[in-house]
Amino acid sequence: MKTVIGLFESRQQAEEAVSELRAKDFSSDEISLVSKDDRSQSASREGRSDMEAGDLGVDSDISTGTAVGSALGGAAGLAMSAGALAIPGIGPIVAMGPLAATLGGAVTGGLAGGLVDLGIPENEGRDIENEIRGGSTLAVVETDASRAEEAAEILRSKGAKSTKIRDRS
């Protein structure tokens, strides 16, 4: 298995990449997005660590929560795989896809700690964490080796400012 990571300047670019991945038959179970969510602070103050899909605070960069859901394979997929978490050092984030569950269990270790399980070295995970803190969006595709370069090319074609392919541990 390979982990393909791409960092995007905007959430919209990342979502366009996810739509293209889905069009090329990458499964929703293989695709994750992580982005800073400045507007979930009020929910954090209420003591909620997870949010319902309707509470994601999706803004005009995304169009609607339904658009995100379609990018990941339908609104039901979004509801099951999206959540807002407070990550130490970053603050509130929105995580969608399989990585959301991983990060939910790794909140105390931060984002970098959650990425180690995907084969991303801790120092690289810290760099990604800093990028997300600065407003970038992370797209992650977990796929077999035969499709890793195809996934990376899709991410690049949709504007990823950097892409990397890592062996999954």
Q: Topology of this structure?
A:
Elements: E1 2-8, H1 11-23, E2 31-36, H2 41-45, H3 65-71, H4 75-81, E3 82-87, E4 91-96, H5 98-105, H6 110-116, H7 122-133, E5 137-143, H8 145-157, E6 162-167
Helix pairs in contact: 1-8, 3-4, 5-6, 6-7
Please summarize what this structure is.
The chain is an alpha+beta fold and 169 residues long. It contains 8 helices and 6 strands.
What does the largest sheet look like?
Answer: 6 strands, antiparallel
Order of helices and strands: EHEHHHEEHHHEHE
- Number of DSSP helices? 8
Low-confidence residue ranges: 40-81
What does this entry look like structurally?
There is one protein chain. With 169 residues, this protein is of the alpha+beta class. The protein has one domain (2-167). Helices cover 43% and strands 22% of the residues. The protein has helices spanning 11-23, 41-45, 65-71, 75-81, 98-105, 110-116, 122-133, 145-157; strands spanning 2-8, 31-36, 82-87, 91-96, 137-143, 162-167. It has a six-stranded antiparallel beta sheet, sandwiched between helices. Helix 3 packs across helix 4. The longest helix has 13 residues, at 11-23. It starts with a strand and ends with a strand.
